[in-house]
Design brief:
The complex is a heterodimer of chains A (398) and B (178).
Chain A: H1 19-40, H2 42-72, H3 83-90, H4 92-95, H5 100-104, H6 106-109, H7 115-119, H8 122-127, H9 133-164, H10 169-195, H11 208-233, H12 243-274, H13 277-286, H14 291-311, H15 319-341, H16 354-375, H17 388-393
Helix pairs in contact in A: 1-2, 1-16, 2-3, 2-9, 2-10, 2-11, 2-15, 2-16, 3-9, 3-16, 9-10, 10-11, 11-12, 11-15, 12-14, 14-15
Chain B: E1 6-13, H1 16-28, E2 34-37, H2 45-48, H3 56-82, H4 95-121, E3 145-150, H5 158-167, E4 172-177
Antiparallel strand pairs in B: 1-3, 1-4, 2-3
The chains are: A mainly alpha (398), B alpha+beta (178).
Chain lengths: 398, 178
């Protein structure tokens, strides 16, 4: 066995850190205010909740993807940052609890859940084998069983390696990841069909699953970058996560900015060009009225600006630029989900409600509270990973 | 024997470490017209030689912008000015439909810029190089490491350079003529 790499940093978030409690407090207050919104305007509440819920769930699923890609390619580059996505993924099982309001609001959200509406509509009748309430609920359970199980397994294996130092666990991680990647690919696609695409049950896009993955994965890297900078500002991992690791994350963000634009545009172009009524209508609503400002805003601020700013190699590890770009990407990610979901509720134009923000803050507080609660229980990096030494030795090459 | 111009002085070393050390020394002494030759890329040699960042990126960017603007201009001329066709009632100035072609031409010209820009910056193509006159230089593709200070360097002086290489422990030194 080779020597254990020496790490000078403190790897333990202090046990009496009040961060989780503060975040839980913010989350609970946010959700209580949102609950008041439910009595004020139930439709608005459920739509706002759905937008915030998909915002955070997508990021958590994307983090499990990243961990699995990392294992299956036997990567070295990201060992020092791997514990962060592992922790996000480990919470997915508990996070299922927050899918319950969507099931409760199924009649407010989904037109296809009204049986009389389906009976009167030939197209919906044809889709009713898939789009019906019992099957919808079964699918939600299935998704969270898969995500929760895989997320927990990968986290557990990583923690076990911290304790036992058994390098054989690496191959266990690969054995979990290999079959789980296609399972995740399918489940994230069907989940996005269920949550967002079926809001307009007449519309369909075969690319929607990839599209949801692309937007989630891009914003996942924004979250990673901000999380690493947040930890380093508080004095953690300062010498462990170096310039080269920050550069890698910047390069990922850049790559998935391009991937996002490619997928989002490919979806739009085919529908625009074919110009078939049942497909075009969805974009028609979203390029009319004030919704078009978000649509063009996405083009400019979610792709063009980050692309041009991150194009230069030096800027992919510039902390200030990465911070601003990440914040911008996250704002645009929220607006994009908002732009996908909300025109169903208010077709005439953007109509922000305070409930949009209270659900975002509420679920965000819980999401990150759960993250830090788990994060402080264990080391911030997989200390005994066999590839940790190689990851630490990696140097930024001019 | 006919009079030939001195191109530079070539020195052979046995391992990459020595090549990095001599590169650092040569840079410190203020030479800037010199180059190193090795059978494989040596990690850190560019730092030792104080090489400037390649300008290739800017050439590629220029070509990319040219491809982007050229593609849009071409399609604008063809489908708005020269031969407007009504396709499914869509506008003549149909930007979404032009994106794939614009993208492809941007990539194509960037790729040309990369390959031919690299040739240009390397001074290629050329038929011969003075270093090929040296029989032992063939080992630079096998197991030997070479450095050559060119005679056109303002600090170049035959005796000083010969001494420098001798003291650095070069296994072989030769003056290179054009």
């Amino acid at each position: 066995m080779s020597h254990q790499p020496t790490i000078t940093d403190n790897l333990q978030l202090s046990a009496d850190s009040k961060l989780p409690q503060i975040l839980f407090g913010i989350g609970i207050i946010g959700l209580l205010i949102s609950a008041y919104g439910y009595f004020a305007d139930a439709n608005q509440f459920f739509f706002s909740y759905l937008v915030s819920f998909t915002f955070f769930t997508g990021i958590a699923i994307a983090s499990v993807f990243m961990v699995m890609f990392h294992h299956i390619t036997k990567s070295k580059w990201g060992v020092v940052i791997r514990r962060i996505p592992e922790t996000f993924g480990a919470n997915l099982g508990v996070w299922a609890f927050f899918a319950i309001p969507i099931l409760l609001g199924i009649h407010n959200l989904y037109h296809w859940s009204h049986e009389d509406a389906v009976a009167a509509d030939k197209i919906l009748k044809g889709k009713s084998a898939y789009l019906n309430t019992p099957f919808f609920i079964i699918r939600q359970i299935l998704y969270f069983v898969i995500w929760g199980f895989v997320g927990h397994k990968l986290y557990k294996a990583s923690i076990d390696m911290d304790i036992t130092g058994d390098w054989g666990i690496s191959s266990l991680m690969r054995r979990i990841s290999a079959p789980a990647i296609p399972l995740f690919g399918l489940s994230i696609a069907f989940a996005s069909f269920d949550w967002l695409m079926s809001l307009d049950p007449h519309w369909f896009s075969t690319m929607f699953g990839v599209y949801f993955f692309a937007i989630s994965f891009q914003s996942f890297w924004a979250v990673m970058i901000l999380m690493v900078f947040f930890l380093q500002r508080n004095g953690y991992l300062k010498n462990t996560i170096g310039k080269v690791h920050v550069y890698d994350m910047g390069a990922w963000l850049f790559a998935f900015t391009v991937f996002y634009a490619y997928i989002a545009f490919a979806q739009f172009l085919l529908i625009y060009y074919a110009n078939l009524p049942e497909e075009t209508l969805w974009f028609y609503h979203r390029l009319e009225g004030s919704w078009k400002f978000i649509a063009y805003g996405l083009l400019l601020l979610r792709f063009t600006l980050p692309f041009l700013v991150l194009l230069n190699r030096e800027q992919k590890h510039d902390r200030k630029i990465l911070t601003y770009v990440s914040i911008l990407v996250l704002i645009m990610h929220f607006l994009e989900i908002y732009w996908i979901a909300m025109p169903t509720l208010s077709a005439h134009g953007i109509h922000f409600s305070w409930i949009d923000f209270s659900t975002l803050i509420g679920l965000g507080g819980i999401f990150f509270g759960m993250f830090f609660q788990r994060f402080k229980q264990n080391s911030m990096i997989p200390e005994k990973d066999p590839k940790l030494g190689a990851c630490l030795e990696k140097s930024y090459h001019q | 024997m006919e009079q030939r111009n001195l191109y530079g002085i070539l020195a052979e070393f046995d391992n990459p470490k020595e090549l990095i050390d001599i590169s650092k020394e040569v840079v410190e002494l203020g030479y800037d017209k010199f180059d190193t030759y090795s059978p494989f890329p040596i990690h850190g040699i560019d730092k030792a030689m104080k090489l400037k960042k390649s300008k290739l990126g800017w050439i590629v960017l220029g070509h990319g912008i040219l491809g982007f603007c050229g593609a849009l201009a071409m399609m604008y001329f063809m489908s708005v000015i020269d031969y407007p066709l009504n396709i499914g009632g869509k506008p003549f100035f149909n930007v979404p439909a032009w994106v794939p072609v614009t993208f492809e031409l941007t990539i194509l010209l960037s790729a040309f810029g990369t390959v031919f820009g690299m040739f240009f910056l390397n001074g290629l193509p050329r038929f011969n190089h003075p270093l090929f006159n040296i029989e032992r230089f063939k080992n630079s593709t096998d197991d030997k490491f070479f450095i050559c200070i060119e005679a056109s360097d303002s600090k170049f002086h035959t005796d000083i350079v010969l001494d420098l290489f001798k003291n650095a422990g070069a296994s072989y030194i030769e003056e290179v003529y054009e």
